[in-house]
Amino acid sequence: MKLSKILPAFSYIFHPIFISLYGTLFYFLFSQNNPYEVQIYLTLIQVGILTLLLPLALYFLLVSLGIITSFTEASIQERRIPLIIQIVLFTVLILFSSSLHFLPELQYFFIGGLISSTIAFLSLLMNYKASLHMIGITSLATFSYALGIYNKTDFTNSIAFIVICTGLVASSRLYMKSHTLHELYIGTLIGIIPQICLWYFWL
């Protein structure tokens, strides 16, 4: 099977809507914080509802209203409402999740996601379409790498896997003609910089 035939799958597997849950799972798999089992389940439920299930429900509502026409190929206008929803839900999660308050590394991951989403929304107001897929996957990759350094843990294979997936997502977006190379670069910067700044200045 040619790689070009499976590239579009990476746009779905690493869609921005799944990144928060991936990051949370990664954190619990590799963090040395050792949270209680109840705390793990509570956090996963909160993240799953606020960043996956509720956005999916709202997505289908927007589709039924004709406001959005595609899950991966949204235009500049179609991106604005979902990004506003994402910003609001990230804010709710960060401010009102009692479990996240005891998991600072994970909380900063979501704060970085909130900052990246806000920057992406502001770019839309200027009619610029940065790649949301690259924002999501590079946020996850940076968080994973920083978590390894912070915990002084060697999970080179996991980082290598995420880096490879980042390249495949970028190739997928180019293959599907969803973005220009410049939009991928800008999306990468928007995803990486907030995560680096949060880890450097606050942890």
TrEMBL record:
The keyword Protein biosynthesis does not apply. Keywords: Membrane, Transmembrane, Transmembrane helix. The chain crosses the membrane at residues 12-30, 42-69, 81-100, 106-125, 132-150, 156-176, 183-202. This is Transmembrane protein.
